[in-house]
C-alpha cells in the first residue's frame, strides 16, 4: 500500500507536460488485437491501467513490447481464452476486450469489469449493441459469454450516449458483414482517437466525433502506427491546480479545445488563462466569483473534472454548485474536503460549495481516481500536512504525478505503508 504525504502551500511554477490519454489508450490496446499484424501505439502513458491491459494481452498470448513511450502489440499468435476476474476486475476498460474479441473470433468469455465505484455502471447498452449485431449474451455467475455465428451490420440507437458502448460496438462491428450505424453515439475525443486507429488498420469508419457513426465491415485489419491524444482530464486537473496555486504554471502538450467547457468556467470565475495552440499558462488569482456547473457528455463539462474542480471552488466568494448528471455516486471526496475545512453540502446529486474557506491538511482517503485527484489539489492548497491513503487509485490514471508536481515546486512524497 502507498500513501502520499503532501506539505501544502507552495506556489507552483514551471511546466507540466501532459501524457497520453488514459481513456483513449485503455481502448486502443484492446482494439489493437483486431489486427492480424503488428500495431505500434506511441505516447502511451505509464499508468497502472496500461500495465493491467498489457497483462491481459500477455495472458492471451499476444506479443507486447514496451519502449519508452510506445507499445508494440503483435497479436499474430493470440489465443481466444476465457479472461478471469483477476485480470478484468483491475479496471473498467477490460470490457473493451468483449467488443474486440467478439469482432475477431465471434466469441468471447470474460468476467465482469472492475473500475471506480462511482455508480452502478451497467453494461446493458454494450450488450444490446452486440445483440443487435447478431450475438447472444449469457451471464453465468458474472462470467459473460457473447457469441455469434455471424456478425451482421445493424442500426443501433443508444438510449444514452455512452462512451464505453460506442467504442465497444465499433470494435465488434469493424469486421462484421455490412454496415452498422450507431445513433446517439458518444462524441468524446477518445472515440475519434479509437476510430482513427481502426481506420489506420484498414477499417471503414465515418462520423466519429458526431452523434452518428457509420461502420462498414471489412475482411481484415493490418499493420499500423498510431499516437494517443493528450489526456484532457489530466490537463484539466493541472489547469485547475494552477488556478488555485499556480504562478505562471504552464500546462503543455495539450489540445485546449478538448477542455473548453472547463476553461470557459474558469474564465467566468475570473481566472486569467493564456491559451496557446498546445498549452495553457495559468496563475492563481483573487476574488474568484462562484459558478454553477452541470456535468454532461462531451462537449459539455466532463464528469471526470467535477471532483478536481471542487477544492478550487472553496476559494470563490459565495455559493458555487456542481450538479452531477452522469454518475450517482461521485461525491465521495466531499466528506474529506469538509474535514480539511471546506463547507460543502450534497443534496440530490448537487454539491453546494460555500466559500471562501481555507483548507488545512489532515488524513484523507482516495476513494476513487478523480476523488484522489481532488484531494491532491486540496492537499497542495492546504496549510500543513495532508496524508492521502489508497493512492493506488490515483496511480491508475495520472502518469508520474509525484515527479510532475515536484518538478513545479510542490512538496510531496509517495511512501510505502
Ligand atoms: N451506462 C448505462 N449502460 C451502459 C453504459 C453506460 O446505463 O451500458 C450509464 C453509466 O452507468 C453512466 C453513464 O451511462 O451513468 C455514462 O457511462 P459511459 O458508458 O459513458 O462511461 P464509461 O464508458 O463507463 C468512460 C470513462 C469514464 C468517464 C465516462 C464519461 C473509460 C474507461 N472511462 O466511462 O472515466 O467518466 O466515460 O465520460 O473511458 C475516469 O477516467 O475517472 C472515468 C471514470
Pick out its properties.
UDP-n-acetylglucosamine1-carboxyvinyl-transferase, Chain, binds uridine-diphosphate-2(N-acetylglucosaminyl) butyric acid, alpha+beta, 417 residues, 14 helices, 32% helix
Can you offer a commentary on this structure?
- This protein has 417 residues and is of the alpha+beta class.
- The protein folds into two domains: 2-18 and 230-416, Enolpyruvate transferase domain (UDP-n-acetylglucosamine1-carboxyvinyl-transferase, Chain), CATH 3.65.10.10; 22-227, UDP-n-acetylglucosamine1-carboxyvinyl-transferase, Chain (Alpha-beta prism).
- It contains 14 helices and 23 strands.
- It has helices at 22-32, 48-59, 85-88, 96-105, 124-132, 163-173, 189-200, 232-245, 260-269, 303-313, 334-339, 369-381, 392-395, 401-406, and strands at 2-7, 12-17, 39-42, 63-66, 70-74, 107-111, 136-140, 143-147, 155-157, 179-183, 204-206, 212-216, 224-227, 246-252, 273-275, 279-282, 292-294, 318-323, 344-347, 350-355, 363-365, 385-389, 411-416.
- The longest helix is centred in the middle third of the chain and has 14 residues, at 232-245.
- The mean pLDDT is 97.
- The chain binds uridine-diphosphate-2(N-acetylglucosaminyl) butyric acid (EPU).
- Residues 23, 26, 92-93, 116, 119-126, 160, 162-165, 186, 233, 303-304, 326-327, 369-370, 397 line the site of uridine-diphosphate-2(N-acetylglucosaminyl) butyric acid.
- The site of uridine-diphosphate-2(N-acetylglucosaminyl) butyric acid has 27 residues, from α1, α5, α6, α10 and α12.
